[in-house]
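Issue 218. Parser rejects a valid record. Input:
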Amino acid sequence: MNKHVFFLLIITFFLGRISMAQNPFITHMYTADPSARVFDNRLYVYPSHDKDSATWWDMEDYHVFSTTDMKNWKDHGKVLDLADITWAEKYAWAPDCVERNGKYYFYFPTDQFHIGVAVSDKPYGPFKDELRKPLISKNSKGVVSDRDFIDPAAFIDDDGQAYLFMGQNTVNAIKLNEDMMSYDGEVHIIEGANFFFEAAWVHKYQGIYYLSYSGKKQIHYAMSDNILGPYKYQGVILDTVNSGTNHHSITEYKGKWYLFYHNADLAYKKFGNSLPKNILQKRRSICVDYLEYNNDGTIKPVKQTKESVEQIKAKY
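Output the parser choked on:
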């Protein structure tokens, strides 16, 4: 074999091996509930943070991660600590973040009862609790909630109107005011989210609104011509994961669509059968795989992989 051909084959082999990322893609700490957002051509993920010794979902702080190539991720460190929220007592669960007028608004649930909002000039924080009180709570007028009041997910429509979706068992939604830290006082109850348990997420594709959510063990979705519904149930996007419950987000980045979710693979790899299943499921890690649409706009079921997605190569 010609030596030039040999070296070309070797280079191709190694490039092929490094072109794929891995699932989970954050491995130095436990992460869950990933909300993926794109700001200034960089993709950010806002997860919750399971403790290394977690035996329940008693998270206390938030980190932010970002990438430009879907393989190499930067940990921007702790961006918000529950200890700094004077009105909150416990449980820093699934957050979300959106940008408006050069400010970044970080929505987070606490105490299984309140939704707060913190603000930063940077997408990677640190975030400050400028409101110094909840934005909305389980006992706010119009809220329908017979379980925990959690999982805020923001959406800014093409006309500039911002919305916040949240709740467990029932999808509650509010129209945010221009300041992103208040709303018009009305709570909208979203219909058509069959099997809804928690983790509402809204995105838009070709003029259609997609409401996706956790049905405890699977990720389901529904579609509508109206942001506030009613929605028409479509089916399952992602099947059961080994972390028991699931939480996801959907976003487009550099021409491809991605589904972010979590599982317990990292904990199982580390501890195997030396820990009970119910403990392993409390130590979760975030993953990403491709999401694709059918010609009619419905979503193809997403395949969970160990390899994750391809690294995005720089264009020269």
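Fixed in the parser; the record now loads. The longest helix spans residues 3-18.
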